[in-house]
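debug: dumping io for the single-chain case to check the tokenizer round-trip. Nothing else runs in this session.
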Amino acid sequence: MSPLIIDLSYILVVASIVTIIFKRLKQPLVLGYIVAGFLAGPHMPYTPSVSSIEGIEEWSDIGVIFLMFTLGLEFSFKKIVRMGIKPIMTAIMVMYCMIGIGGLVASFFGWSSMDRLFLGGMLSMSSTTIIYKAYDDLGLRSKPFASGVISVLILEDILGILLMVMLSALAVSRTFEGTELIKSFLKLGFVLMLWFMVGIYLVPLIFRKAKKYINSETLLVVSVGLCFLLAASASEVGYSPAFGAFMMGSILAETLEAENIEKSVSSLRDLFGAVFFVSVGMMVEVSVLTEYWLPILVLTLAVILGQMFFGSLSFFVTSGDVKTAVSSGFSMVQIGEFAFIIAGLGNELGVTSQFLYPVVVAVSITTTFFTPYIIKFAPKVSARIEPLLNSKIQERRKKRKELAAAIQQSMTGYDFSTAKAWHNFIKAVLYQTAAFLTISIALTMFCYSTVLPLCQHAMGEKYGLIVCCVITLLLLSPCIRAIVVRKNRNENVHYLRGLGGINRVMIELAIFLKALMGFIIIYNIVMFVSPLWWVWNALISVAILMLMVVSRGVKYVSIRVERTFKQNLRQREQQATLGYGRKLRGKDLQIARVKIPQHSRWGGRSLAQLHFGKTDRVHIVAIIRAGHRINIPGGSNRIYPGDELEVVAGTEAINAMRARSEQEILQPNEQIKDEHSMSIISVHLSESSPLIGKTLQDADFRSRYHSMVLGIENEQGHLDATQAKRQFRQGDIVWVVGEEADLSMLSMVI
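debug: decoded output
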């Protein structure tokens, strides 16, 4: 039997035994895999060892590819847009601080510049796998702060991909020249955009055309094949195969088959992921750990204390809440899979020291072990810190309100509609130009590298060159037309042109620059084949451009390509909006009752807040409460413990909802925050307040602000009842009662 098969069977047996033990001890499985790798590795003299480390490393490379592929399946480019700026700022701040800490520690021990760079990258990202597992074990996945941490983890993984590319470029060039770095980023941006656009256009199209031939088996084969295809392509253009696997996963995440693909490859991910973490454990050398015990200790403290402080600080800057910030920062006190991948990249490129890998593995094991205990310790720390910072937080919020009021006052009379029109126009033009320009460059490179040799071989050098250029122009014509013509006649352009003056001039200039870009693309292709004077080539290029613009066939293809791309990009969202009922056949529907248990977390919440249609794929048709029926309830209707819900759905969905209702039970000492609790605030009316000169009747607090005025504070500090006809004056201190959300909006407005 092949030694590779024997080695694989041995490490899987060891891994299964160790992970069962770790499961019983309630420790992360990742830690068990690493320990299993150490026991089965060549550096453990008291147990049998594998015969071929190289063979196991090949299996581990496959494991990395599957890990990154499934990570891409869970990630959507549109999710980043929906997250907003706060998670992005948090992720960047945390990574920047931890990269600096890693560099400082490496400098302290006198390590090389490449060791400092790669060590900073290893320490900059927390482990998505370990935190997910810790939250599941501790029952924290449903906590409010958990979603923020998960968003930051996703962004860190994405930024980690970019960091790997940057480290690879720096390692190859061995220089830190700004020009080379810019070229690397431009190349990365080009490759990212090309892969994403081609993938989003072709992959869903293939799935739709071959839908009747695809079952679970063929879906697995096709998706894994596409994964390795892009992984190999990434390797060919100088990037990590893991990067290509991640990109293919993110492309497939936009298809209707994303969930089925994720289920199909989950077993492969678990298997090869286990092999990857076992191979990491094989790199642990006792002699290295003994020799480098001090750097391991210092790095462990640096990761834990650095994430506790800088992580909490970063979350606090973006959220402003001490409890959320501390719970979030204390969750990220470990390094994991990305640290191993970056360490492996450094070893593969031969730019990092051999001791760095086992040192980082030791740090990861230690920090992983302490993670659950530090997460549990976070509430105690926040309880001690919060009272000390409350006054500063209130002062900060007050200054923020004053700044917002000052900005609003300074921008009185500003024409926001013009700014919005320019913003929409520039955004649309940049997106469209960048997309079609990328496709144009890629098609030109393909024609010159592949089509040209074929044409010259078949027709000779001269005529082959002419035919190749004609083919290139035909392929580029839909892209060039889109760059030149699209977005020139939309409502934003009409509005800005109608304003006249500088707005009209700038619009015409933008349209001219788009036409100039199309002309330059055509002119370069014509110059490549034409021996004529440049003036004649320019005239020929203008004529070709005009033909592309007026051609109905080119227009049809251009619009169809763009619509297909947008349809593929939005198909999952469109499918979700169809509702569960449309996915079922009529005979599959049934009406059933689901009883809400006592102490349910759902108690007191509205149907709109619970959105059972999305989470459970059921329709609520009636609420039965103490013999009273509420038929066809609206989103504002609330449910309470003891209610019975009449639902319409399929059997599986109804059973799943029943199971979930029994799990959504309040634990002892657990309370649900009342989202509709009432508060009282006082508002000091400045001279810029819109209430000045208005009466209480004119202001209409009840319908406009969903709140009630209690009175106006007099000079003695007592409240005077407000008469309906009394006008508000500058300096009035108005006391108002209402829900917290409404009062926050009110304080910003008045």
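debug: round-trip ok. The longest strand covers residues 619-625.
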